[in-house]
Amino acid sequence: MSTTAPIIDAHMHLWKRSNSTYSWLGNVDEALQRDFSSELAEVELRSAGVSSAILVQADDTHTDTAHMLSVAETHSWVAGVVAWVPLEHPDEAERKIGELSQHHPKVRGIRQLIHDDPRPGLLNTPSVRETLGIIANHQLAFDVPDAWPRDLPSVKGVADQYPSLPIVVDHLGKPPAQVDHLPAWAEVISELAQRPDIFAKLSGLHYLGDEQLSRVWEIALEAFGPERLLWGSDWPMSVPHGGYRVHARRIWSLLDELTDRERRAILGDTARRVYKLEV
Description:
Elements: E1 8-12, H1 38-48, E2 52-56, H2 62-74, E3 78-83, H3 90-103, E4 107-111, H4 126-137, E5 141-144, H5 152-161, E6 167-169, H6 182-193, E7 198-202, H7 210-224, E8 229-231, H8 244-252, H9 260-275
Parallel strand pairs: 1-2, 2-3, 3-4, 4-5, 5-6, 6-7, 7-8
Helix pairs in contact: 3-4, 5-6, 6-7
């Protein structure tokens, strides 16, 4: 794969366990149960030839967001930050978004780990919908993590209510690894793609086998087209699966069939447009 433009990693994490709880770390591979710093991240980016990255929240705490913001202020390779605010508390969320917008211009999106919340239908609750309207009013993007199967269908209603809100479906919604479950996911993805302000990230797919990955890629490309797909490494979640470069090249190899313009869209131009990046 080759491209003539700088590459943006649209989905990268950092975490420092002394800063936040990261309770989900107890349920993942042991290789992830340590700190992942900005220094380590920069080494991975440079070795893979990636120019910049968007840091995405990894815990629903202000301290996790503060850590990302401190890195963003001192590292030029950070193109943007997807921060956390409490979606179910619109008054608090509005105050925090106002603060972030005023003092931290690299904040370009909001996300909450809704897939870890035991309450079903969180995206359909009035308080969360109110907060999503606030996010839209501040011209920020809204990232939806690991949404299949529980939360992905609700994204359509959010898009219909707030058509100006850029919604980014992280990790393609986490498509199922089982072949016989793929049609149900594909049907919802196709429905979401009919909304022009819904985008999807080619990220977090390291758990898929080669055949399933190719099929998922074909479905996503047909549904969204290259103009609404973004590539992200999901590092360091890729560490147990070969690491940054191995998984990046695995995804990039899928893009060989595309034109240079289409590759540029997935590897940077779409991220610039969705997150209003200045890189």
